[in-house]
């Protein structure tokens, strides 16, 4: 069973994504900020992380950079999910080696399809 980590500080988004991905057959982990993501990665290695950018304590950009620095974690696929729609924001995420950048609001169906595409080669 493929593992997905959902990192977002909005309860409604977490609940919606958790339901959709559990229903699609994934094992789902939840984090509410970047520090929880980094803590969870000490014991779990998800196949993919859905990572919000604007979170308290440690933001998504910082979290992404920390993950990519660790050679044991750098292979995890990461999709940034963000309300930040500016070209500079998207470029920053992609420059940090995100696998994709999807802006909110998004289609759950299209997000699920994108996750499946990214995990097809794993």
UniProtKB/TrEMBL annotation:
Keywords from the named record: Phosphoprotein
Coiled coil spans: none
CDD domains: REC_OmpR (cd17574)
PANTHER family associated with the record: RESPONSE REGULATORY DOMAIN-CONTAINING PROTEIN, STRESS RESPONSE REGULATOR PROTEIN 1
Family annotation (InterPro entries): Bact_response_regulator, CheY-like_superfamily, Sig_transdc_resp-reg_receiver
Response regulatory domain segment(s): 3-119
GO biological process: phosphorelay signal transduction system
The protein's name: Transcriptional regulator
Modification type 4-aspartylphosphate: residues: 52
Matching PROSITE patterns: RESPONSE_REGULATORY
Name of the coding gene: yycF_1
